[in-house]
């Protein structure tokens, strides 16, 4: 039986997790492939759920969440589990885990949804830089300490080029651009990138983020471009690039986080691009499309449900043609109505009973 991990945060996390389990169960049932979803025992904080606490208490809860989720991921990886779906959680906890497990986020932009030949590959360096690090609190001050390292930079570049060879077989990356605030690093990043480029035998253009933005506005980024970026730019620009390459919104998109630390390298974390939306909790207003797509990707790539992605995309296209959508994209349907419409559009019988076994 295939095991898939599930980590749930506060806010709309419970609703999103329910959508994931329901869709994964239906797809697994249709393929007659048994799958067990194993939930983390802890429900992780969102940013909103921590508001009102003293900074010292926030720091303590942040560390507790980070330590627990890191342990959950390590435990899954040690048992050979290859996929975990995580709903949105407090970013401060999340980036502690990403730093410790040396994570990068990969997203192919452009081309058909769920396609294997994107126009552009975005690789977000989440393992180092200004989004990582530790806070030290003093009266009226927060001191944040972070670092960059040549070894981690090499791992991120290696991962980006390897992923490019997967998404563009036989061709690889036509152009590699790195968007980092390298002017703040005394020339060290320039030297690291130059050595990495020589090692791989490729040209890597290291740019300030505003230069990449100027190029994007002036003439776009040509097909086959790999953008390796620090989160200081990539986190903000992700939704802009989604719009530029394919006209997608964050509410309909999922991404993958891969881990470079050898002990967890086989575990891929799936997440929606949208956040926890605590103000929507319990109201049935969450757009479930990103979660539905993530469930299909997990089903096809990690559970063995052939054709799951194409089937879900067909069902989503059918809903869109009938104008069935949640309010955030101009519709009037509830979360549950959209999910029910997708499941009906899949044309597979039953709720997937026997295919999905909920775990602790």
From TrEMBL:
<protein>
    <submittedName>
        <fullName>Isocitrate dehydrogenase</fullName>
    </submittedName>
</protein>
<dbReference type="Pfam" id="PF00180">
    <property type="entry name" value="Iso_dh"/>
</dbReference>
<dbReference type="InterPro" id="IPR024084">
    <property type="entry name" value="IsoPropMal-DH-like_dom"/>
</dbReference>
<feature type="domain" description="Isopropylmalate dehydrogenase-like">
    <location>
        <begin position="3"/>
        <end position="342"/>
    </location>
</feature>
